């Protein structure tokens, strides 16, 4: 550590008489020395740098503090005192350590969030493996923007209470519904609540966008369709034909040849098994749920899934044509087309996200 002693002597002189540039130079040299030897240091040796760098960093300009934060952020045994000091600095300085530094524990992160506010909280939401005490606090105190950000962190862990609060807020927040629909760690009983919220949102949006004469007829379409898909019951059919079709569809998908047009062609040709398997693969749903979508008791189910996937009405109509009850009434076809065109894609995607979660539950 003789190099540290030499730098300490330079530091004392620079602190008394040096310019900002000289202080920044000493800091850079100290940081270089630390990074070059950090892997071999014990905590006592790291503590020496903690004191020295911490003292100097309080007397340097913003640009140099930002650089120091970025250099120390990924270091596993960075001086903990200086990391906390940087984390409490203005956000331009704090961001790197808030996002990356493993030296900040849950207690540190909660304290920083309480002391500094939204910008620091948003940086914290980007950390990998956020613990439950931190996510609980961010949900409680962070406001809508922070809540959405932490909900979107797929590696964050949530307590039962914290997740319950998110689901409760999602009932009045369509964007939060969409974010939660991408998660795979929501308890089964809360998935049911999310499904209800999504169906209510879809019903509300459709009712607002349709003419009054159609609104009453479509009012229950999304709920019935989602319930039918969620039931996931196996429809009668030739399991051997389905299995053979699934092998072929998977081969097409692996070759990059499976898309909306292919599914539409299968449906128009009356190849129901291939169309069902194509929907299953592209929608990321199981075969029973996909068969229920195409051939189940509610025609509107296919509207939801096709809209969520961004498919055209032509493809949707081709899938509906596989049903025996299609075409008996031109008025019903026209109403289905109108419902499809007035169904917001974002709403349909939220419902599909919840269906995927439910389909994945054992």
How are the elements arranged and paired?
Layout: H1 2-17, H2 20-37, H3 43-57, H4 62-72, H5 80-87, H6 91-100, H7 106-116, H8 118-124, H9 132-141, H10 143-151, H11 160-170, H12 174-180, H13 188-209, H14 212-218, H15 221-231, H16 239-254, H17 260-268, H18 272-283, H19 287-295, H20 300-308, H21 313-320, H22 330-342, H23 345-360
Pfam family, one: DUF2336
InterPro entries: DUF2336
Q: Please report which band the strand proportion falls in: under 5%, 5-15%, 15-25%, 25-35%, 35-45% or over 45%.
A: under 5%
Tally of individual domains? 2
- Helical amount among residues, as a percent range? over 70%
Please tally the helical runs, counting DSSP H or I stretches of 4 or more residues.
23
Q: Judging from the principal axes of the Cα atoms, what is the shape? A: elongated
Low-confidence stretches: 208-219, 229-239
Residue-averaged pLDDT, rounded? Answer: 80
Provide the succession of SSEs: HHHHHHHHHHHHHHHHHHHHHHH
The main β sheet shows up as: none
Subunit arrangement of the protein: single chain
Structure explained in plain terms:
By secondary structure, this protein is mainly alpha-helical. It has 2 domains: 2-170; 195-360, no CATH class. The chain is 73% helix and 0% strand. The protein is built from 23 helices and no strands. It has helices spanning 2-17, 20-37, 43-57, 62-72, 80-87, 91-100, 106-116, 118-124, 132-141, 143-151, 160-170, 174-180, 188-209, 212-218, 221-231, 239-254, 260-268, 272-283, 287-295, 300-308, 313-320, 330-342, 345-360. Helix 7 runs parallel beside helix 9 (132-141), helix 9 (132-141) packs antiparallel against helix 10 and helix 16 (239-254) crosses helix 18 (272-283). The longest helix is centred in the middle third of the chain and has 22 residues, at 188-209. Residues 208-219 and 229-239 have low confidence and may be disordered.
């Amino acid at each position: 550590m003789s190099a540290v002693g030499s730098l300490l002597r330079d530091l004392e002189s620079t602190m008394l008489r040096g310019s900002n540039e000289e202080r920044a130079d000493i800091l850079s040299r100290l940081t270089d020395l630390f990074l070059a030897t950090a892997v071999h240091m014990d905590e006592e040796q790291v503590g020496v740098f903690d004191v020295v760098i911490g003292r100097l960093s309080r007397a340097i300009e913003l640009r140099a503090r930002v650089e120091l934060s970025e250099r120390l952020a990924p270091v596993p045994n960075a001086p903990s005192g200086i990391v906390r000091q940087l984390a409490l600095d203005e956000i331009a300085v704090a961001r790197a350590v808030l996002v990356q530094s493993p030296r900040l524990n849950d207690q540190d992160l909660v304290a920083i969030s309480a002391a500094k506010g939204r910008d620091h909280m948003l940086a914290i939401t980007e950390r990998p493996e956020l613990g439950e005490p931190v996510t609980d606090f961010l949900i409680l105190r962070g406001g809508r923007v922070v809540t959405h950000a932490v909900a979107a962190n797929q590696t964050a862990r949530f307590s039962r209470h914290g997740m319950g609060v998110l689901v409760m807020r999602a009932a009045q927040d369509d964007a939060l519904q969409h974010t939660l629909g991408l998660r795979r760690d929501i308890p089964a009983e809360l998935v049911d609540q999310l499904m209800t919220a999504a169906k209510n949102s879809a019903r509300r949006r459709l009712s607002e966008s349709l003419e009054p004469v159609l609104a009453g007829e479509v009012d229950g379409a999304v709920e019935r369709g989602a319930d039918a898909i969620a039931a996931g019951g196996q429809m009668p059919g030739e399991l051997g034909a389905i299995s053979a079709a699934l092998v072929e569809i998977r081969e097409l998908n692996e070759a990059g040849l499976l898309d909306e047009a292919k599914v539409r062609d299968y449906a128009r040709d009356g190849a129901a098994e291939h169309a069902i398997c194509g929907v299953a693969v592209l929608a990321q749903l199981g075969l029973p749920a996909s068969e229920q979508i195409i051939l189940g008791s509610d025609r509107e189910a296919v509207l939801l899934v096709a809209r969520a996937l961004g498919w055209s009405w032509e493809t949707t109509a081709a899938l509906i044509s596989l049903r025996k009850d299609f075409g008996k009434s031109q008025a019903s076809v026209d109403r289905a087309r109108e419902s499809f065109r007035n169904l917001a894609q974002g709403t349909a995607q939220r419902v599909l996200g919840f269906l995927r979660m439910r389909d994945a539950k054992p």
